[in-house]
């Protein structure tokens, strides 16, 4: 029932650029639009010249392998939208639609940032209302949607579940929403070494896999249809 997929790797880091092999495999399996995350690493959204070259190359490859849209965000060191870099990246993305991701939640002034994104030509902005979750940031999301007046789609995202979706949609007046709809699935490994981890201490455990939960997607979609 999902209307669109935001394809990412590295969900523990909030999403990074997926492999082109993954994009190809997904495009063979689904008919809904697939928007590809362009984020060369986790951490902040202040990018070096080398990282920018990687982002441009990834955008070109994603377009080549069937991306229906792109998702990225870039900020200046003082917490504003990096208009120069965004303009350059948007030029590489076109004619595909582009979403500015939750880098927006790290801006110094969200109202000013929204006007900047509109002037640059982004089709959507994903936000938790500059708070820890969309529910916590609900009042700001509503103000941003009112400010946008249809000039850009304000998409609530961050901690959305079947338990809070109705409240978020009704409270924000949003017409779209974003969520991972994931659950943990136990690994099929019989032999397990508890003394070794394949990443930093904050990473997901090796023997539990996060997967998109079909039942959750259907439930969320049904809730949204009732409200929208």
TrEMBL record:
<keyword id="KW-0479">Metal-binding</keyword>
<keyword id="KW-0186">Copper</keyword>
<protein>
    <recommendedName>
        <fullName>Copper homeostasis protein cutC homolog</fullName>
    </recommendedName>
</protein>
<dbReference type="InterPro" id="IPR005627">
    <property type="entry name" value="CutC-like"/>
</dbReference>
<keyword id="KW-0539">Nucleus</keyword>
<dbReference type="GO" id="GO:0005634">
    <property type="term" value="C:nucleus"/>
</dbReference>
<dbReference type="GO" id="GO:0005737">
    <property type="term" value="C:cytoplasm"/>
</dbReference>
<dbReference type="GO" id="GO:0005507">
    <property type="term" value="F:copper ion binding"/>
</dbReference>
<dbReference type="Pfam" id="PF03932">
    <property type="entry name" value="CutC"/>
</dbReference>
<comment type="function">
    <text>May play a role in copper homeostasis. Can bind one Cu(1+) per subunit.</text>
</comment>
<comment type="similarity">
    <text>Belongs to the CutC family.</text>
</comment>
<dbReference type="InterPro" id="IPR036822">
    <property type="entry name" value="CutC-like_dom_sf"/>
</dbReference>
<comment type="subunit">
    <text>Homotetramer.</text>
</comment>
<keyword id="KW-0963">Cytoplasm</keyword>
């Amino acid at each position: 029932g999902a209307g669109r997929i935001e394809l990412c790797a590295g969900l523990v880091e909030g999403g990074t650029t997926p492999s082109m092999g993954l994009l190809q495999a997904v495009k063979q399996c689904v008919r809904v639009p697939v928007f590809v995350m362009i984020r060369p690493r986790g951490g902040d959204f202040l990018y070096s010249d080398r990282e920018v070259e990687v982002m441009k190359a990834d955008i070109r490859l994603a377009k080549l392998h069937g991306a229906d849209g792109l998702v990225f965000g870039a900020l200046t060191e003082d917490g504003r939208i990096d208009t120069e870099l965004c303009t350059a990246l948007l030029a590489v993305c076109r004619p595909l639609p582009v979403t500015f991701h939750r880098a927006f939640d790290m801006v110094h002034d969200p109202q000013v940032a929204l006007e900047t994104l509109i002037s640059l030509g982004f089709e959507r902005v994903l936000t938790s209302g500059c708070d820890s979750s969309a529910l916590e940031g609900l009042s700001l999301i509503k103000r941003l949607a009112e400010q946008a007046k249809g000039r850009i789609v304000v998409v609530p995202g961050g901690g959305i579940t079947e338990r809070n979706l109705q409240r978020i949609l009704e409270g924000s007046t949003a017409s779209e929403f974003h969520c991972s709809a994931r659950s943990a699935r136990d690994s099929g490994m019989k032999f397990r070494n508890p003394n070794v981890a394949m990443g930093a201490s904050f990473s997901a455990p090796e023997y539990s896999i996060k997967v998109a939960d079909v039942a959750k997607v259907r439930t969320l979609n049904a809730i949204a249809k009732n409200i929208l």
